[in-house]
Specification:
Layout (H helix, E strand, L loop, with lengths): L2 E3 L5 E3 L8 E4 L2 H13 L5 H11 L1 E5 L6 E4 L7 E4 L5
Antiparallel strand pairs: 1-2, 3-4, 4-5, 5-6
């Protein structure tokens, strides 16, 4: 099972589809483009929709320990930038 490590040392098991710390991020424009394509094509399956969505979206993980966000730099790159919430 694939894993990803946060800068705080937390190891997250990813890929089981049961993670409550995993998200997909997609621009509104890309999502609307996919919706437009879906509405124009008859017989478009949910599988084709998901394939289109996955081509445009990036993976985001929220560390369960420190709440830092790990955001994929570009779709399917497997390179992540780390963001920590600012505190006052």
């Amino acid at each position: 099972m694939p894993k990803i490590a946060c800068k705080c040392g937390q190891i997250m098991n990813i890929g089981s589809l049961d993670e409550d710390f995993a998200y997909d991020l997609i621009s509104q424009n890309a999502l609307w483009d996919i919706i437009d394509i879906c509405s124009e094509q008859k017989g478009l399956t949910s599988e084709k929709f998901i394939d289109s969505f996955n081509q445009e979206s990036v993976e985001v993980y929220e560390c369960p320990s420190c709440k830092r966000l790990l955001i994929e730099e570009s779709p399917r790159s497997n390179k992540f930038s780390f963001y920590k919430k600012e505190t006052e």
